[in-house]
């Protein structure tokens, strides 16, 4: 009679079975995601190193023109490279509007999240539901909705004209301001929800301690509240900044054709621009910037796990 | 210090800002809904209540086609994504931790991290090649693309539900000589049902809302409601778009309310 398998051996077998079953059960989802989400990104990378085809698409010759084209354009007459001002304008607009959107949503979102978190439990669920509805509502519909407000004949102008603040309607549509208002409007819930989650865990007794030590409200806010809810601030900022940077619908609807952001610029290369390698290179570049932002987020979030002071 | 009756959690101006934010959040949506019932065709001039634009949208074959396509894609993508996400969630929670678990988790959530426009471009290129190879131009591409980006939205609530569930019930079933399949079918699945329903609803809403990826993947004549509405922007905007938006909005709110009711029961 053979001796019973040692415990470690049995455990080892169990562990291997667990690994196998885990992978087997996850496999269909992973395959689907590889085919229709992650895998095609590799093709984009390949395309970014090819030569533009005459009528769109690519011809299969290696070229770095896509990547060079991000920053430089070739002079049609003497073929020299020079900085492409138009591209830089678009990048600067994207970064500027994304940062401003993040700042505005934080300035408005923090008091909102604080307000929700300090309601009694029943009311809190309702307020939270009210912030969640816009979050799940179609982004395009919300963009249309904000259009109703800021159009030349929109509510905002009607009210301002009626109370005599302005003499002629403000022309907001098709400007950077319109895009900024629109993005702040559609991405606000993305800021409020993680801030709420952080504030919800905040121990309000710390405030009493602060006030007992004669701290003013501003001091309590700066030195007690903000440092502790920092993970929520970082999460909210990333959640707003990343989709702002890649925004496509909002700048297209509110910015008109002229006030493009990176997302629209990428689309242009696959449409009228007929420069697929440039579009591919821009996509990969955008992806890299977003991944770096995520990395900063993960680092900031894990650093926060260590106990305070 | 007798009169120290102030609320510690109150911060000056916060409540006012919050209420203003809520008003600003809902005013545009209510305006849009309100004007969808406008009798006149000028967007911002109120000419009395009417269901005219709902009737016109309903009688517009292009809109009806887009609506049916939206629902078909959302239902298929939600079914596929929820099935695969349920399997993956069970694979990554109901057992001891195993090697690669974190990698699976990251891979499943990947669509949440990549900007939509980048995925859209990638699928435009990839499906373009497949389309020219196979000649197949059908809705399959849209269903496939939607299924993929819906997976994390279905996965997260299912996984959350599984993590809150007690493993001892399945152990008890196994002790009573239930096969793994019987234990799953009669113990795990019924307990997991609310999570699956929640995941399916979120996936449905997310698919229904998608604009960017659909815009890049669709072949000619495959407009969904959102891409149809985006296309209308080039022409003069009619209140018809408001009516369609309102209909979609109502559907979303109904699904979300159902989601919250389903989720609340677990407490």
UniProtKB/TrEMBL annotation, chain A:
Family: Belongs to the binding-protein-dependent transport system permease family. CysTW subfamily.
Pfam family name, one: BPD_transp_1
GO biological process, one term: transmembrane transport
SUPFAM superfamilies listed in its UniProt record: MetI-like (SSF161098)
Protein name: Spermidine/putrescine transport system permease protein PotB
Keyword field: Cell membrane, Membrane, Transmembrane, Transmembrane helix, Transport
Topological category with respect to the lipid bilayer: Multi-pass membrane protein
GO CC list: plasma membrane
Organism of this sequence: Pseudogemmobacter humi
Transmembrane stretches, start-end: 23-47, 97-117, 123-143, 155-172, 178-199, 220-242, 278-298
Domain ABC transmembrane type-1: from-to ranges: 91-297
Annotated gene: potB_7
Subcellular location: Cell membrane
TrEMBL record, chain B:
Keywords for this protein: Cell inner membrane, Cell membrane, Membrane, Transmembrane, Transmembrane helix, Transport
Membrane association type: Multi-pass membrane protein
UniProt GO BP: transmembrane transport
InterPro entries: Bact_Polyamine_Transport, MetI-like, MetI-like_sf
Parts of the chain that traverse the membrane: 12-37, 71-91, 112-133, 139-158, 187-208, 243-262
Main location: membrane
Ranges where the ABC transmembrane type-1 domain occurs: 67-262
Alphabetical list of Gene3D superfamilies matching this protein: MetI-like (1.10.3720.10)
GO cellular component: plasma membrane
Subcellular location: Cell inner membrane; Cell membrane
PANTHER family per UniProt: PUTRESCINE TRANSPORT SYSTEM PERMEASE PROTEIN POTI (PTHR43848), SPERMIDINE_PUTRESCINE TRANSPORT SYSTEM PERMEASE PROTEIN POTC (PTHR43848:SF5)
Role: Required for the activity of the bacterial periplasmic transport system of putrescine and spermidine.
Family note: Belongs to the binding-protein-dependent transport system permease family. CysTW subfamily.
The protein's name in its UniProt record: Spermidine/putrescine transport system permease protein PotC
Source organism per UniProt: Pseudogemmobacter humi
């Amino acid at each position: 009679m053979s001796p019973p398998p040692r415990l470690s051996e049995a455990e080892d077998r169990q562990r291997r079975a667990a690994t196998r079953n885990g992978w087997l059960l996850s496999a269909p989802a992973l395959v689907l995601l590889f085919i229709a989400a992650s895998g095609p990104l590799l093709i984009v990378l390949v395309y970014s190193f090819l030569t533009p085809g005459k009528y769109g698409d690519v011809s299969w010759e290696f070229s770095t023109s896509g990547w060079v084209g991000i920053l430089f354009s070739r002079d049609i007459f003497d073929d020299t490279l020079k900085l492409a001002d138009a591209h830089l304008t678009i990048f600067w607009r994207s970064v500027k509007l994304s940062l401003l959107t993040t700042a505005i949503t934080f300035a408005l979102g923090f008091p909102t999240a604080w307000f929700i978190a300090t309601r009694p439990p029943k009311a809190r669920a309702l307020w939270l539901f009210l912030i969640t509805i816009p979050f799940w509502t179609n982004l395009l519909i919300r963009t249309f909705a904000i259009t109703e407000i800021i159009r030349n004949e929109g509510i905002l102008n009607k009210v301002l004209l009626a109370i005599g603040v302005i003499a002629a309607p403000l022309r907001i549509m098709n400007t950077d301001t319109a895009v900024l208002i629109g993005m702040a409007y559609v991405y606000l819930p993305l800021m409020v929800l993680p801030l709420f989650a952080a504030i919800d865990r905040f121990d309000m007794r710390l405030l009493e301690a602060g006030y007992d030590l004669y701290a003013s409200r501003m001091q309590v806010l700066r030195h007690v509240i903000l440092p502790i809810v920092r993970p929520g601030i970082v999460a909210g900022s990333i959640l707003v900044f990343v989709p702002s940077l890649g925004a496509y619908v909002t700048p297209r609807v509110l910015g008109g054709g002229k006030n493009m952001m990176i997302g629209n610029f990428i689309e242009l290369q696959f449409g009228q621009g007929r420069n697929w390698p440039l579009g591919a290179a821009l996509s990969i570049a955008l992806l890299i910037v977003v991944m770096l932002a995520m990395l900063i987020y993960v680092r900031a979030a894990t650093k926060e796990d260590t106990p305070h002071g | 210090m007798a009169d120290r009756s102030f609320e510690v959690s109150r911060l000056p101006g916060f409540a006012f800002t919050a209420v203003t934010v809520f008003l600003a959040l809902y005013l545009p949506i209510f305006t849009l809904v309100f004007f969808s019932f406008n009798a006149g065709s000028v967007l911002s001039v109120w000419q009395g209540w009417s269901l005219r634009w709902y009737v016109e949208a309903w009688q517009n074959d292009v809109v009806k086609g887009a609506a049916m396509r939206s629902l078909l894609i959302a239902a298929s993508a939600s079914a596929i994504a929820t099935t695969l996400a349920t399997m993956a969630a069970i694979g990554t929670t109901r057992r001891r931790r195993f090697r690669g678990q974190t990698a699976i988790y990251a891979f499943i959530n990947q669509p949440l991290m990549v900007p939509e426009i980048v995925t859209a471009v990638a699928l435009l290129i990839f499906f373009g090649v497949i389309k020219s190879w196979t000649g197949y131009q059908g809705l399959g591409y849209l269903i496939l693309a939607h299924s993929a980006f819906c997976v994390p939205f279905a996965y997260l609530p299912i996984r959350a539900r599984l993590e809150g569930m007690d493993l001892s019930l399945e152990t008890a079933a196994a002790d009573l000589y239930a096969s793994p399949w019987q234990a799953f079918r009669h113990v795990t699945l019924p307990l997991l049902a609310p999570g699956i329903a929640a995941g399916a609803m979120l996936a449905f809403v997310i698919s229904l809302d998608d604009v960017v990826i659909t815009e890049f993947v669709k072949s000619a004549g495959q407009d969904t409601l959102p891409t149809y509405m985006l296309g209308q922007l080039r022409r003069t905007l009619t209140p018809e778009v408001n009516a369609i938006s309102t209909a979609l909005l109502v559907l979303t709110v109904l699904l979300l309310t159902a989601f919250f009711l389903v989720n609340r029961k677990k407490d």
